[in-house]
Amino acid sequence: MQNSMMHLPLVIGSLADHVERFHAATEVVSVETTGEVTRTGWGAVIGNARRLASALEMHGVMQGDRCGTIAWNTRRHLEIYFGVSGGGMVCHTLNPRLAAEQLVYIVNDARDRVLFIDRGFVPTIAGLIDQMPTVKMVVMMGARDEALAAQLDGLQFYDELIAQGDAAFQWPQIAETEPSSLCYTSGTTGHPKGVLYTHRSTLLHTLAGNSPDGLALSARDSVMPAVPMFHVNAWGVPYIAAAVGAKLVLPGPKLDGESLARLIAAERVSLALGVPTVWLGLLQGLEATGADVSCLKRAMVGGTALPPSMIAEFRDRYGVDLVHLWGMTETSPLGTVNQLLQKHVALPPEAQAERRLAQGRPPYGVQLRLVDSAGHVLPHDGVTQGELQIRGHWIVDTYYNKDRSALTFDGWFDTGDIATIDPDGYMVIRDRSKDIIKSGGEWISTVELENIAIAHPAVANAAAIAARHPKWDERPVVIVQRHLRMEVSEEEILACYKGKVPNWQIPDRVLFIDNLPLGATGKVVKARLRELYGEVLMPETAEAEPA
Ligand code: ADP
User: Fold this and answer.
1) What is the DSSP letter of 87?
2) Which residues cross the membrane (predicted)?
3) Which residue of 34, 82, 175, 507 is most buried, as measured by CB atoms within 10 A?
4) Confidence label for 58 from pLDDT (cuts 50, 70 and 90)
5) Domain count, the chain
6) Whole-angstrom Cα distance, residue 60 to residue 217?
7) How far is the CA of 521 from the centre of ligand 1 (A)?
8) Which atom of ligand 1 is nearest to the CA of 333?
9) Is position 226 within any domain?
10) Measured between alpha carbons, how far is 494 from 501 in angstroms, rounded to an integer?
11) Any idea what the CATH number is for the domain that residue 141 is in?
12) Is 489 a domain residue?
């Protein structure tokens, strides 16, 4: 039977063709690792991506080969995204903050053939290259620099490499089911695992994730991913921005509040994306700089739960709508986005804010369900908590280099999160299953305890952990980081819990720390806090504790 409709493969090359043809002049602004701000357009970015793909081909890089990146959010990184994937190779983003041992593990697991690195990482890679036998080519993402060339034998320079390439290079024809990019989970427990995205999964994520109730980016937006390009492809923003032709503002290595506040004001950023710690920093940066960020309309927040106090602060002081997202490396990452339904529009702002604390609803293409520990499916009543499972067009099936499917017997992926889902489909993450506090057989949500502490004006950030307890197995302890030069006592924080949670959920202790340990993607490393404070409630430790 003849096809009744055209069948064109969903491939990243087609996205590059589109943005080059229809949005060539739309700006791409990049803060380089040198601090310099460069300004090009989508046309120039894709031209360089073509040059890169053809140069890699000339150097014998084959389709399907993994090309690693160790880099911040810059224009060259964007060109690599499109050039490598468009050219049929796999763009493998690595997290620069990983320990050397993990970098080596991941490069070897991925069998990366090429590494593209920012200038600051040349010494690290020079010290590790002997342990990375599959890497045949290391490319510093910049112009030639003799001092760097002297540090690593055979180091190539990106600007010279692409100068050898052809700006009219045509993307090879590849099947949409071929891999396009690779990203590893952060591996806080055990070895990191690779998730290999396909062209098709990426394109479907791009199209569905950008629906009006999703990220809703348009050609009128100036969008700044303050989420790194190595954190699940900057949540898909480079692809989405290309699909709609949005102005893209790449903030480089500096994600501190003051740098971001200035960049938002200078580039009239209308939409920004990042983890809550970045937005906590931005609030302080706005205060310090007094930058005019009236251009900023929306900020998308995900990665960890959005502290409720932030919604009101952004809304009332800066007119910014915080939109909550949830996802993970295994889900490309968009799993849910929180936008209101028609029936919520007339609600007063406080009631709307309450609604928006949920992690959101799934876009078309993603299905969610809750199950109990025996695998029985639970109701979506907004109350029953269960393990959150997901399936859809951009959800992992099998981890990279693994033979066994990562799915349940009936084809769902278990997220490791504990959640509720209400009858309208709003999902709320109650905790990660490895973080939740199990006190005398009952569960206590660390997220809820943290939100209460963070709402105190002297608290910069807070993390709740399960501390071992002789009678209740585990009890909550909250670790608080105070704002600079602000004081607050344990009693004052504990008083905040009265009436907000049942008495038995009130933390046993509040401890203070100068800086909460943050992982490479800006999330608090609770495993480290459990190591430090997990025993404070045990009699022998409590007695040994200094007064
Ligand atoms: P990791 O946190 O291990 O580095 P990911 O970046 O893939 O890896 O994170 C996925 C996890 O992050 C989710 O399973 C969930 O626990 C947490 N997460 C992501 N977004 C949110 C959110 N909006 N609220 C609460 N938790 C979130």
Assistant:
1) T
2) none
3) 82
4) very high
5) 3
6) 37
7) 10
8) 7
9) no
10) 11
11) 3.40.50.12780
12) yes
Partners of 273 in beta bridges: 225, 300
Do 467 and 415 lie in one domain? The reply is: no
Q: Which domain holds residue 184?
A: 12-213
Co-location of 32 and 176 in the same domain: yes
Residues 508 and 426 in one domain: no
> Is residue 465 within 8 Å of residue 447, measured between CB atoms?
no
CA distance 225 to 388: 27
The answer to whether 62 and 35 have CB atoms below 8 angstroms apart is: no
**For residues 204 and 394, is the Cβ–Cβ distance under 8 A?**
yes
Give the atom of ligand 1 at the shortest distance from the alpha carbon of 188: 3
User: Can you read off the two tokens belonging to residue 353?
Assistant: 């804010």
Is the model's pLDDT at 547 over the cut of 60? no
pLDDT at 542 over 60: no
Q: What's the rounded Cα separation, in Å, for the pair 321 and 304?
A: 18
Q: Which of 162, 180, 213 is the last residue of a domain?
A: 213
> How far apart are the CA of 547 and the centre of ligand 1, in A?
37
3-state helix, strand, coil split of the chain in percent (to 5) is 35, 25, 40
Verify that 368 and 453 share a domain, yes or no. Answer: no
Residue entry with tokens 């002997």 = 130
Buried b (16+ CB within 10 A) or exposed e, 460-473: bbbbbbbbbbeebe
State whether 503 and 415 are in the same domain: no
Beta strands in 149-264 (DSSP E): 156-157, 179-184, 194-198, 222-225, 247-250
Do 137 and 92 have their domain in common? Answer: yes
Do 94 and 191 belong to one domain?
Answer: yes
Is the domain of 77 the same as that of 156?
A: yes
User: Measured between alpha carbons, how far is 93 from 183 in angstroms, rounded to an integer?
Assistant: 6
Ligand 1 binding pocket, CB closer than 6 Å: 185-186, 188, 302-305, 324-329, 359, 415-417, 429, 432, 521, 523
Question: Of 162, 185, 213, which one is at a domain's C-terminal end?
Answer: 213
Q: Are 278 and 226 in contact (CB under 8 A)?
A: yes
- Give 326 Cα–ligand 1 centroid separation in angstroms: 7
